[in-house]
Amino acid sequence: MPESTYLLNPFIPSIVASIVGAVLLGFIGLRTNKSPILLFVAGAISGAIGANLFTAPLNYCMFQADQSNDDVIVGWILVALGATLLIWIVSVVAQRYVKGLPLFPRGEYVAGAFQGRHALLNALLVLSPTLLILIFFVYIPFFDTFRLSTFLARFGTPRTAFICVDNFSRLLSDEAYHMNLYLSFVFSAFIILFTMSTALLIAVMANQPIKGAKIYRTLLIWPYAVSPIVAGSIFQLMLSQESGVINQFITTFGFEKVSWLTTVTPARFSVIVASVWNIIGFNILFYIAGLQNVPKDVLEAASIDGANAWQRFWRITFPLLSPFTFFLVVTNTVYAFFDTFGLIFVLTRGGPTESTFTAMYRIYVQGILGNDIGKSTAQSLVLFLIVIGITIFQFRFANRNVHYGN
Asked: What is the pLDDT of residue 230?
Protein backbone atom coordinates (compact mmCIF):
# COMPACT_ATOMS: atom_id res chain seq x y z
CA MET A 1 0.00 0.00 0.00
CA PRO A 2 1.66 3.30 -1.07
CA GLU A 3 2.23 5.83 1.65
CA SER A 4 0.37 9.10 1.60
CA THR A 5 2.03 11.87 -0.39
CA TYR A 6 0.10 14.56 1.47
CA LEU A 7 0.19 13.60 5.13
CA LEU A 8 -2.05 15.78 7.29
CA ASN A 9 -1.80 16.75 10.90
CA PRO A 10 -4.96 15.54 12.67
CA PHE A 11 -5.57 19.07 13.93
CA ILE A 12 -5.80 20.56 10.43
CA PRO A 13 -9.25 19.04 9.66
CA SER A 14 -10.49 20.29 13.04
CA ILE A 15 -9.30 23.81 12.25
CA VAL A 16 -10.91 23.75 8.78
CA ALA A 17 -14.23 22.44 10.14
CA SER A 18 -14.10 25.00 12.96
CA ILE A 19 -13.68 27.85 10.46
CA VAL A 20 -16.52 26.55 8.28
CA GLY A 21 -18.85 26.22 11.28
CA ALA A 22 -17.94 29.69 12.56
CA VAL A 23 -18.61 31.26 9.15
CA LEU A 24 -21.97 29.51 8.67
CA LEU A 25 -23.40 30.27 12.11
CA GLY A 26 -21.75 33.70 12.25
CA PHE A 27 -23.55 34.53 9.00
CA ILE A 28 -26.87 33.62 10.63
CA GLY A 29 -26.06 35.99 13.49
CA LEU A 30 -24.99 38.85 11.20
CA ARG A 31 -28.02 38.42 8.96
CA THR A 32 -30.43 38.57 11.89
CA ASN A 33 -28.29 40.96 13.95
CA LYS A 34 -28.75 38.76 17.01
CA SER A 35 -25.72 37.57 19.03
CA PRO A 36 -23.35 37.14 16.06
CA ILE A 37 -20.34 36.59 18.34
CA LEU A 38 -22.17 33.88 20.33
CA LEU A 39 -23.22 32.09 17.16
CA PHE A 40 -19.73 32.50 15.71
CA VAL A 41 -18.24 30.77 18.76
CA ALA A 42 -20.97 28.07 18.75
CA GLY A 43 -20.24 27.35 15.08
CA ALA A 44 -16.50 27.11 15.69
CA ILE A 45 -16.95 24.72 18.60
CA SER A 46 -19.51 22.53 16.82
CA GLY A 47 -17.30 22.32 13.72
CA ALA A 48 -14.25 21.34 15.76
CA ILE A 49 -16.12 18.70 17.76
CA GLY A 50 -17.88 17.36 14.67
CA ALA A 51 -14.57 16.96 12.83
CA ASN A 52 -13.43 14.58 15.55
CA LEU A 53 -16.73 12.76 15.92
CA PHE A 54 -15.73 9.81 13.71
CA THR A 55 -11.95 10.22 13.52
CA ALA A 56 -11.13 10.41 17.23
CA PRO A 57 -12.60 6.92 18.04
CA LEU A 58 -10.21 5.56 15.38
CA ASN A 59 -7.27 7.41 16.97
CA TYR A 60 -6.81 9.47 13.77
CA CYS A 61 -5.31 6.40 12.11
CA MET A 62 -6.18 7.64 8.62
CA PHE A 63 -3.79 10.59 9.03
CA GLN A 64 -0.78 8.58 10.14
CA ALA A 65 2.42 8.28 8.12
CA ASP A 66 1.88 4.75 6.81
CA GLN A 67 -1.55 5.43 5.32
CA SER A 68 -2.29 5.79 1.60
CA ASN A 69 -3.77 8.77 -0.20
CA ASP A 70 -7.12 6.96 -0.35
CA ASP A 71 -7.05 6.57 3.46
CA VAL A 72 -6.55 10.32 3.84
CA ILE A 73 -9.47 10.96 1.48
CA VAL A 74 -11.69 8.67 3.55
CA GLY A 75 -10.50 10.54 6.64
CA TRP A 76 -11.60 13.83 5.13
CA ILE A 77 -14.96 12.28 4.25
CA LEU A 78 -15.41 11.22 7.89
CA VAL A 79 -14.44 14.73 9.00
CA ALA A 80 -16.99 16.24 6.61
CA LEU A 81 -19.75 13.87 7.76
CA GLY A 82 -19.18 14.52 11.45
CA ALA A 83 -18.80 18.28 11.06
CA THR A 84 -21.86 18.56 8.79
CA LEU A 85 -24.00 16.58 11.22
CA LEU A 86 -23.07 18.61 14.29
CA ILE A 87 -23.09 22.00 12.54
CA TRP A 88 -26.54 21.22 11.11
CA ILE A 89 -27.91 20.34 14.56
CA VAL A 90 -26.48 23.51 16.10
CA SER A 91 -27.73 25.63 13.17
CA VAL A 92 -31.28 24.33 13.68
CA VAL A 93 -31.12 25.30 17.35
CA ALA A 94 -29.54 28.66 16.42
CA GLN A 95 -32.31 29.51 13.96
CA ARG A 96 -34.91 28.82 16.64
CA TYR A 97 -32.93 31.06 18.98
CA VAL A 98 -32.78 34.02 16.59
CA LYS A 99 -36.52 33.67 15.91
CA GLY A 100 -37.27 33.86 19.62
CA LEU A 101 -38.62 30.31 19.77
CA PRO A 102 -37.80 27.76 22.51
CA LEU A 103 -34.46 26.12 21.75
CA PHE A 104 -36.12 22.70 21.77
CA PRO A 105 -39.69 22.16 20.49
CA ARG A 106 -42.25 21.50 23.18
CA GLY A 107 -45.55 19.83 22.63
CA GLU A 108 -48.76 21.23 24.05
CA TYR A 109 -50.16 19.66 27.18
CA VAL A 110 -53.19 17.58 26.34
CA ALA A 111 -55.38 15.23 28.29
CA GLY A 112 -53.43 12.13 29.26
CA ALA A 113 -50.02 13.78 28.92
CA PHE A 114 -47.43 13.22 31.65
CA GLN A 115 -47.11 16.21 33.93
CA GLY A 116 -45.45 17.08 37.21
CA ARG A 117 -41.99 16.52 38.65
CA HIS A 118 -41.69 12.91 37.48
CA ALA A 119 -43.18 13.38 34.00
CA LEU A 120 -39.95 12.50 32.20
CA LEU A 121 -39.35 9.43 34.37
CA ASN A 122 -42.90 8.18 33.84
CA ALA A 123 -42.61 8.69 30.09
CA LEU A 124 -39.32 6.77 29.99
CA LEU A 125 -40.87 3.89 31.93
CA VAL A 126 -43.71 3.66 29.41
CA LEU A 127 -41.30 3.84 26.48
CA SER A 128 -38.73 1.47 28.02
CA PRO A 129 -39.87 -1.68 26.13
CA THR A 130 -39.57 0.12 22.80
CA LEU A 131 -36.28 1.77 23.78
CA LEU A 132 -34.77 -1.56 24.84
CA ILE A 133 -35.77 -3.17 21.54
CA LEU A 134 -34.24 -0.27 19.60
CA ILE A 135 -31.04 -0.34 21.66
CA PHE A 136 -30.41 -4.08 21.38
CA PHE A 137 -31.69 -4.69 17.84
CA VAL A 138 -30.87 -1.40 16.06
CA TYR A 139 -28.33 0.84 17.79
CA ILE A 140 -25.91 -1.77 19.18
CA PRO A 141 -25.81 -3.73 15.87
CA PHE A 142 -25.22 -0.46 13.99
CA PHE A 143 -22.23 0.51 16.13
CA ASP A 144 -20.94 -3.05 15.95
CA THR A 145 -21.19 -2.86 12.16
CA PHE A 146 -19.12 0.34 12.19
CA ARG A 147 -16.56 -1.31 14.47
CA LEU A 148 -16.26 -4.40 12.27
CA SER A 149 -15.81 -2.24 9.17
CA THR A 150 -12.43 -1.11 10.56
CA PHE A 151 -11.18 -4.67 11.10
CA LEU A 152 -9.88 -7.52 9.01
CA ALA A 153 -12.53 -9.99 10.15
CA ARG A 154 -13.82 -13.26 8.73
CA PHE A 155 -16.61 -15.63 9.69
CA GLY A 156 -15.40 -18.66 11.61
CA THR A 157 -12.11 -17.06 12.72
CA PRO A 158 -12.08 -15.53 16.23
CA ARG A 159 -9.01 -13.36 15.58
CA THR A 160 -9.33 -9.92 14.02
CA ALA A 161 -6.86 -7.18 13.08
CA PHE A 162 -7.45 -3.44 13.11
CA ILE A 163 -6.82 -1.99 9.64
CA CYS A 164 -8.18 1.54 10.11
CA VAL A 165 -10.29 2.64 7.09
CA ASP A 166 -8.64 0.27 4.61
CA ASN A 167 -11.96 -1.50 3.91
CA PHE A 168 -13.41 1.86 2.84
CA SER A 169 -10.41 3.24 0.96
CA ARG A 170 -10.18 0.12 -1.23
CA LEU A 171 -13.68 0.88 -2.51
CA LEU A 172 -12.45 4.18 -4.01
CA SER A 173 -10.37 2.32 -6.60
CA ASP A 174 -12.55 -0.79 -6.96
CA GLU A 175 -14.01 -0.55 -10.48
CA ALA A 176 -16.20 -3.61 -9.95
CA TYR A 177 -17.82 -1.97 -6.93
CA HIS A 178 -18.35 1.23 -8.92
CA MET A 179 -20.20 -0.80 -11.55
CA ASN A 180 -22.33 -2.42 -8.83
CA LEU A 181 -23.30 1.02 -7.51
CA TYR A 182 -24.05 2.19 -11.05
CA LEU A 183 -26.37 -0.78 -11.62
CA SER A 184 -28.09 -0.08 -8.30
CA PHE A 185 -28.83 3.49 -9.36
CA VAL A 186 -30.03 2.41 -12.83
CA PHE A 187 -32.30 -0.30 -11.44
CA SER A 188 -33.67 2.09 -8.81
CA ALA A 189 -34.45 4.79 -11.38
CA PHE A 190 -36.33 2.40 -13.67
CA ILE A 191 -38.17 0.70 -10.79
CA ILE A 192 -39.32 4.01 -9.30
CA LEU A 193 -40.34 5.47 -12.67
CA PHE A 194 -42.25 2.41 -13.94
CA THR A 195 -43.80 1.56 -10.57
CA MET A 196 -45.19 5.00 -9.81
CA SER A 197 -46.38 5.82 -13.31
CA THR A 198 -48.10 2.45 -13.75
CA ALA A 199 -49.55 2.53 -10.23
CA LEU A 200 -51.01 5.99 -10.79
CA LEU A 201 -52.59 4.90 -14.07
CA ILE A 202 -54.10 1.78 -12.49
CA ALA A 203 -55.26 3.72 -9.43
CA VAL A 204 -57.07 6.27 -11.59
CA MET A 205 -58.90 3.47 -13.43
CA ALA A 206 -59.63 1.53 -10.24
CA ASN A 207 -61.04 4.66 -8.63
CA GLN A 208 -63.85 4.84 -11.14
CA PRO A 209 -67.37 4.19 -9.76
CA ILE A 210 -67.83 0.72 -11.22
CA LYS A 211 -69.55 -2.38 -9.86
CA GLY A 212 -67.28 -4.59 -7.78
CA ALA A 213 -64.63 -1.86 -7.42
CA LYS A 214 -63.65 -3.01 -3.91
CA ILE A 215 -62.89 -6.51 -5.18
CA TYR A 216 -60.71 -5.15 -8.02
CA ARG A 217 -58.82 -2.89 -5.64
CA THR A 218 -58.16 -5.71 -3.21
CA LEU A 219 -56.81 -7.94 -5.97
CA LEU A 220 -54.57 -5.14 -7.23
CA ILE A 221 -53.01 -4.68 -3.80
CA TRP A 222 -52.36 -8.38 -3.15
CA PRO A 223 -48.93 -8.60 -4.89
CA TYR A 224 -47.47 -6.43 -2.12
CA ALA A 225 -48.28 -9.17 0.39
CA VAL A 226 -45.86 -11.46 -1.48
CA SER A 227 -42.27 -11.35 -0.22
CA PRO A 228 -39.47 -10.62 -2.75
CA ILE A 229 -38.22 -14.21 -2.45
CA VAL A 230 -41.65 -15.62 -3.34
CA ALA A 231 -42.09 -13.05 -6.12
CA GLY A 232 -38.72 -14.11 -7.52
CA SER A 233 -39.77 -17.76 -7.45
CA ILE A 234 -43.00 -16.95 -9.30
CA PHE A 235 -41.17 -15.07 -12.04
CA GLN A 236 -38.50 -17.76 -12.24
CA LEU A 237 -41.20 -20.30 -13.09
CA MET A 238 -42.81 -17.92 -15.58
CA LEU A 239 -39.54 -16.94 -17.29
CA SER A 240 -37.92 -20.38 -17.50
CA GLN A 241 -36.48 -20.82 -20.99
CA GLU A 242 -37.82 -24.31 -21.55
CA SER A 243 -40.98 -24.61 -19.49
CA GLY A 244 -41.87 -21.02 -18.64
CA VAL A 245 -45.36 -19.84 -19.50
CA ILE A 246 -44.00 -16.66 -21.14
CA ASN A 247 -41.91 -18.58 -23.66
CA GLN A 248 -44.76 -21.03 -24.25
CA PHE A 249 -46.98 -18.07 -25.07
CA ILE A 250 -44.37 -16.53 -27.38
CA THR A 251 -43.83 -19.71 -29.35
CA THR A 252 -47.55 -19.94 -30.18
CA PHE A 253 -47.04 -16.84 -32.36
CA GLY A 254 -44.03 -18.34 -34.14
CA PHE A 255 -41.31 -16.52 -32.21
CA GLU A 256 -38.22 -18.19 -30.76
CA LYS A 257 -37.82 -18.73 -27.03
CA VAL A 258 -36.01 -15.97 -25.13
CA SER A 259 -33.32 -16.61 -22.52
CA TRP A 260 -34.90 -14.26 -20.02
CA LEU A 261 -32.58 -15.04 -17.12
CA THR A 262 -29.33 -15.96 -18.87
CA THR A 263 -28.91 -13.05 -21.31
CA VAL A 264 -27.77 -9.60 -20.16
CA THR A 265 -30.55 -7.29 -21.38
CA PRO A 266 -33.50 -9.68 -20.80
CA ALA A 267 -32.15 -10.51 -17.32
CA ARG A 268 -32.04 -6.84 -16.33
CA PHE A 269 -35.49 -6.30 -17.80
CA SER A 270 -36.80 -9.33 -15.87
CA VAL A 271 -35.47 -8.04 -12.54
CA ILE A 272 -37.05 -4.63 -13.12
CA VAL A 273 -40.43 -6.07 -14.14
CA ALA A 274 -40.50 -8.49 -11.19
CA SER A 275 -39.61 -5.65 -8.79
CA VAL A 276 -42.31 -3.40 -10.24
CA TRP A 277 -44.92 -6.18 -9.91
CA ASN A 278 -43.88 -6.85 -6.31
CA ILE A 279 -44.10 -3.23 -5.08
CA ILE A 280 -46.83 -1.81 -7.33
CA GLY A 281 -49.67 -2.87 -5.02
CA PHE A 282 -48.27 -0.69 -2.24
CA ASN A 283 -48.23 2.32 -4.59
CA ILE A 284 -51.75 1.62 -5.86
CA LEU A 285 -53.04 1.50 -2.28
CA PHE A 286 -51.75 4.99 -1.47
CA TYR A 287 -52.72 6.53 -4.79
CA ILE A 288 -56.29 5.24 -4.46
CA ALA A 289 -56.44 6.69 -0.94
CA GLY A 290 -55.19 10.00 -2.32
CA LEU A 291 -57.64 10.05 -5.21
CA GLN A 292 -60.55 9.44 -2.86
CA ASN A 293 -59.54 12.55 -0.90
CA VAL A 294 -59.47 14.89 -3.90
CA PRO A 295 -62.37 17.38 -3.42
CA LYS A 296 -65.08 16.56 -5.93
CA ASP A 297 -66.45 20.13 -5.89
CA VAL A 298 -63.10 21.49 -7.13
CA LEU A 299 -63.11 19.06 -10.06
CA GLU A 300 -66.73 19.93 -10.85
CA ALA A 301 -65.94 23.65 -10.78
CA ALA A 302 -63.01 23.13 -13.16
CA SER A 303 -65.25 21.10 -15.48
CA ILE A 304 -67.83 23.89 -15.53
CA ASP A 305 -65.05 26.36 -16.38
CA GLY A 306 -64.22 24.27 -19.47
CA ALA A 307 -61.25 22.20 -18.31
CA ASN A 308 -61.08 18.81 -20.01
CA ALA A 309 -60.25 15.55 -18.24
CA TRP A 310 -56.50 15.82 -18.85
CA GLN A 311 -56.36 19.43 -17.63
CA ARG A 312 -58.33 18.56 -14.50
CA PHE A 313 -55.97 15.70 -13.75
CA TRP A 314 -52.71 17.57 -14.44
CA ARG A 315 -53.70 20.92 -12.89
CA ILE A 316 -55.77 19.73 -9.90
CA THR A 317 -55.60 16.01 -9.15
CA PHE A 318 -51.88 15.43 -9.58
CA PRO A 319 -50.76 18.43 -7.46
CA LEU A 320 -53.13 17.33 -4.68
CA LEU A 321 -51.50 13.88 -4.81
CA SER A 322 -48.03 15.37 -4.19
CA PRO A 323 -47.81 14.24 -0.52
CA PHE A 324 -48.51 10.66 -1.60
CA THR A 325 -46.09 10.93 -4.53
CA PHE A 326 -43.33 12.25 -2.30
CA PHE A 327 -43.86 9.49 0.27
CA LEU A 328 -43.87 6.81 -2.44
CA VAL A 329 -40.66 8.14 -4.01
CA VAL A 330 -38.88 7.74 -0.66
CA THR A 331 -40.27 4.28 0.10
CA ASN A 332 -39.67 3.02 -3.45
CA THR A 333 -36.08 4.24 -3.27
CA VAL A 334 -35.47 2.21 -0.13
CA TYR A 335 -37.15 -0.83 -1.72
CA ALA A 336 -35.15 -0.55 -4.94
CA PHE A 337 -31.79 -0.36 -3.17
CA PHE A 338 -32.37 -2.99 -0.48
CA ASP A 339 -35.39 -5.25 -1.02
CA THR A 340 -34.59 -6.22 -4.61
CA PHE A 341 -31.86 -8.48 -3.21
CA GLY A 342 -34.36 -11.32 -2.74
CA LEU A 343 -35.54 -11.11 -6.35
CA ILE A 344 -32.00 -11.06 -7.74
CA PHE A 345 -30.96 -13.92 -5.46
CA VAL A 346 -33.72 -16.16 -6.82
CA LEU A 347 -33.86 -15.00 -10.44
CA THR A 348 -30.29 -14.42 -11.64
CA ARG A 349 -27.82 -14.75 -8.72
CA GLY A 350 -26.24 -11.55 -10.00
CA GLY A 351 -25.70 -12.93 -13.49
CA PRO A 352 -25.27 -13.29 -16.29
CA THR A 353 -21.69 -11.91 -16.18
CA GLU A 354 -22.64 -9.78 -13.14
CA SER A 355 -25.14 -7.79 -15.23
CA THR A 356 -27.58 -7.74 -12.28
CA PHE A 357 -24.91 -7.57 -9.58
CA THR A 358 -26.15 -4.68 -7.43
CA ALA A 359 -24.39 -3.18 -4.42
CA MET A 360 -26.74 -5.00 -2.04
CA TYR A 361 -26.07 -8.34 -3.70
CA ARG A 362 -22.32 -7.69 -3.53
CA ILE A 363 -22.60 -7.30 0.25
CA TYR A 364 -24.11 -10.79 0.43
CA VAL A 365 -21.46 -12.29 -1.86
CA GLN A 366 -18.59 -10.58 -0.04
CA GLY A 367 -19.82 -11.25 3.48
CA ILE A 368 -21.69 -14.56 3.36
CA LEU A 369 -20.13 -16.41 0.43
CA GLY A 370 -16.68 -14.83 0.80
CA ASN A 371 -16.70 -14.85 4.63
CA ASP A 372 -15.16 -11.34 4.59
CA ILE A 373 -17.25 -9.61 7.23
CA GLY A 374 -14.99 -6.55 7.38
CA LYS A 375 -15.38 -5.58 3.72
CA SER A 376 -19.09 -6.42 3.62
CA THR A 377 -19.88 -4.24 6.66
CA ALA A 378 -17.94 -1.36 5.10
CA GLN A 379 -19.95 -1.72 1.90
CA SER A 380 -23.21 -1.89 3.86
CA LEU A 381 -22.36 1.38 5.63
CA VAL A 382 -21.52 3.06 2.31
CA LEU A 383 -24.82 1.91 0.81
CA PHE A 384 -26.66 3.04 3.93
CA LEU A 385 -25.10 6.52 3.71
CA ILE A 386 -25.94 6.75 -0.01
CA VAL A 387 -29.61 5.95 0.60
CA ILE A 388 -29.70 8.35 3.57
CA GLY A 389 -28.17 11.05 1.36
CA ILE A 390 -30.74 10.45 -1.39
CA THR A 391 -33.55 10.59 1.17
CA ILE A 392 -32.26 13.85 2.68
CA PHE A 393 -31.97 15.32 -0.82
CA GLN A 394 -35.56 14.31 -1.55
CA PHE A 395 -36.81 15.87 1.70
CA ARG A 396 -34.73 19.00 1.14
CA PHE A 397 -35.62 19.75 -2.48
CA ALA A 398 -38.53 17.59 -3.67
CA ASN A 399 -40.55 18.46 -0.56
CA ARG A 400 -40.76 22.07 -1.77
CA ASN A 401 -43.30 21.05 -4.40
CA VAL A 402 -45.42 19.06 -1.95
CA HIS A 403 -48.68 20.75 -0.94
CA TYR A 404 -50.36 19.69 2.28
CA GLY A 405 -53.78 20.65 3.53
CA ASN A 406 -56.59 22.24 1.61
From this structure: 92
CB atoms closer than 10 angstroms to residue 314: 11
The model's pTM: 0.86
Q: Is the separation of the CB atoms in 67 and 164 below 8 Å?
A: yes
At 107-117, the pLDDT tens digits run 555 555 656 66
Distance between CA atoms of residues 167 and 44, nearest Å:
31
Q: Measured between alpha carbons, how far is 340 from 273 in angstroms, rounded to an integer?
A: 11
Does an H or E element contain 119, and which?
A: helix 119-134
Residue 353 Ramachandran class (φ > 0 left, ψ -120 to 50 alpha, else beta): left
**Contact call for residues 339 and 276 (beta carbons, < 8 A):** no
What phi and psi values does residue 6 have, to the nearest 5 degrees?
A: -140, 70
Structure confidence by residue, pLDDT tens digits, 357-369: 999 999 999 998 8
End-to-end CA distance of the chain: 61
Whole-number Å distance between alpha carbons of 203 and 294: 13
Measured distance CA(390)–CA(75) in Å, rounded = 22
User: How far is the C-alpha of 286 from the C-alpha of 327, rounded, in Å?
Assistant: 9
